[in-house]
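Q: Hi! First time asking for a complex rather than a single chain. Here are the components, and I think there are two in total. Is that enough to go on?
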Amino acid sequence: MTKPKSEHADASTKLTSAHLASRKLYSIILMALTLLAVVFGAGVVSGYLNAGGGDRLDVLLGIVIAWMLVVAGLAVLAARVWPKHAKEPISRSTRRSRNLIYVLLSLSVALGLLLGYNETDGTSVLSNGPIPLFPALVAIGLWAACAPIVTLMWWRSTDEHDRASYTDGANIAGHAYLFIAPSWWVATRAGLLPEQDPMVVLLIVATIWSAVWLYRRYF
Amino acid sequence: MRDWSQAELAMHLDVSRQAVNAIETGKHDPSLPLAFKLARLFEMPIEEIFDDEA
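A: Yes, that's all I need. Here is the structure of the assembled complex.
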């Protein structure tokens, strides 16, 4: 690794190692809380759906309210633990790439709600049950046309460190897929695991990709 | 020498604060264009800013 000579680089910044360490701690706490919120929220929603409670409008409303609460809670937490961070100036490319990430997240949430709401016999967003044609085409359009365009825009707007972190994530996630998919296939044939579900594999790979990307970017 | 925070330096380079931090801590090697941008910003040769640790 090429390291900046300390007398130049350190003099040009005000951040101390203690400051950086505290930020790292806050980042870990925030990520852990986010993970807990997501897991807890997923458990509550799937439990509710599996129990067959409520009609579809109730479910949709519940999911929207739960997500709004999670997002609002994290926003309040971020504003409390990162007051200096929140006031930092942000470069134009960073602001643009951040906004595009928000667009992608909104697309993903819309997609999840669309599929969840239009389940006909399944009860989970990840079920393999049939769904009506129109919402299916909308979902495919969102994921196969809109998401790649926004992703490309994000890739072109973000900085080289973020691109390198993302590429590292892709590399490790690709290898994970290479190891997970055949192992599961063999395990199924040996009667150790149920039939391979491509969406579950996709979720595992996407989680690994995101975790490596965020780790390399923020730690 | 400039008395900039990481965020201010990031603004001048049009990168994120995390990118500046990663370069400072040696976790990310900047590309040549970014290294030249840094050199121009500090009005110093690249080899005076970076050490190849050879």
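A: Chain B has four helices and one strand. Let me know if you'd like any chain examined more closely.
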